[in-house]
Amino acid sequence: MIESMTSRWSAPEIEEPVPGLEPEGGPRLVKRCPRCGEQMPAESRICHYCLTSLADVAPEPIELPPDAGPVNVWQRLRRVPARRWLQLIAVAALAGFIYTQCFWPAPSRDEASGSRSLSVAPQVWAGPGADPGSTRVTAASPPLHGETVWIRTLDSEITAPLVADETAIYVAHRDARLVAYATADGGELWTLPVPGQLDNSPVVAGDTLYAALRSGGLVAIEARSGRERWRSDTGQDILSGPMVVDGVVWVAGRGSMFAYDAENGELLGSAESGDTVLALGEIAVGAERVVFHSWRRLHFFSIESGQHEFFGRFSLGRHVAAGHGLVVGVSDFGMLAFEEDVDQPWWEGLRRAWFWAYLWGLAPPTPSQPYRWVKPLGCEPLAPVLQPEQVVAACANGRVLALATDDGRTLWELSGPRLVDDPTLIAQGLLLVEKSALVVVDPRTGDERDRRALEGVTLSQVLVTSGGVYITTVGGELRALR
Length: 482
Prior knowledge:
Blueprint: H1 2-9, E1 29-32, E2 39-41, E3 60-61, H2 70-102, E4 148-153, E5 163-164, E6 168-173, E7 177-182, E8 188-193, E9 203-205, E10 208-212, E11 217-222, E12 228-233, E13 243-245, E14 248-252, E15 256-261, E16 267-272, E17 280-285, E18 289-293, E19 297-302, E20 308-313, E21 317-323, E22 326-331, E23 334-339, H3 351-359, E24 373-376, E25 385-386, E26 390-394, E27 399-404, E28 410-415, E29 419-426, E30 429-434, E31 437-441, E32 448-453, E33 459-465, E34 468-473, E35 477-481
Antiparallel strand pairs: 1-2, 1-3, 4-35, 5-6, 6-7, 7-8, 9-10, 10-11, 11-12, 13-14, 14-15, 15-16, 17-18, 18-19, 19-20, 21-22, 22-23, 23-24, 25-26, 26-27, 27-28, 29-30, 30-31, 31-32, 33-34, 34-35
């Protein structure tokens, strides 16, 4: 019995010839472990029993053991469990990592107490991109050829895109004020001091206006009176604007996403992205994800859980839009399109090491990001117009392209005078804002359909609703066309 056990536990690795043997059948070479005394094949770099390094151990002729007795057998039996325990611990750690990353349910944010969402009726322009996804698509049929019914001279520059409901136009001024001007006559309805200035637009959801402050505050304001309803503090600097969907106010700070109850300002949840750079511009909310961008990345968060789920590399980002299962980011380099439900690839955490291995010729090139397509633009980009079948990319130099959402191919392209504001899809067609004209082109072909010249006026911003067209000029005027 002892002989059979001894035969079983003798090292099988040295039964076959190994490099280092003399061709005429000379003595086999092995390495003896300095810790446990076991003999390993000459090419071994670690002991297979106790995992001690054998890199500095010189090979020596094999020493055949004498007939083993019971003591030798029990010594071997004591060593084997130690080795097996190390293997089991390693396997358990790997299994735990895979489970927590792939199958462990993500922590969920708290449920909102209401269902308030960004207003999207044709009579309003409630956010910087018209809807929660910032697609810049509206059903409004604005009176582009209307008469100028009033002019208001502004006493301070504007720091963010205009938003409006049926009663008021909400303007962020450089002198640290948020002002509501009446759509009826341009009269001032109320003024609210804000610390520093607003760097992005407030948003309108029902009868409430929501604004994010540089100091980290999130403020809910009664739209009719300007009275503060509630205020919460994120504890981070904020340069991006908020977005309200299904009772939740989403706001992004320094690499973090926060979810607040739109009714009372209670924090429902927050998540880190791993990026410490400030979020910029608008937040886009799709069917499953909330997306913001910094100057170097696009960050995707789950609507259901609020947790960070994906990031895309996105240098010098300018705008983001989400809708129809697609997320589009626009930067100074071009346009990137991702599936909204994209997942982080397993190799992303190894990208840096992989890149260096590639430079040393030890690995293939690092894989590309899992985007649907990419389109270089080579211009100063404006905000995109996202539709189910195409996305419009416009440049300040007057270049406009329509790209297919499925593969990014160019459907049509036109070049015209310089554009001063972002394009918008309205009921009449694609609205382009030139220096002194409002131009409508066919969104299917790019052919011009209509043009409204505004003599003696240099445009800065244009806001469109079915109730009126509101424009700001380089000279500091706010005008209404009806």
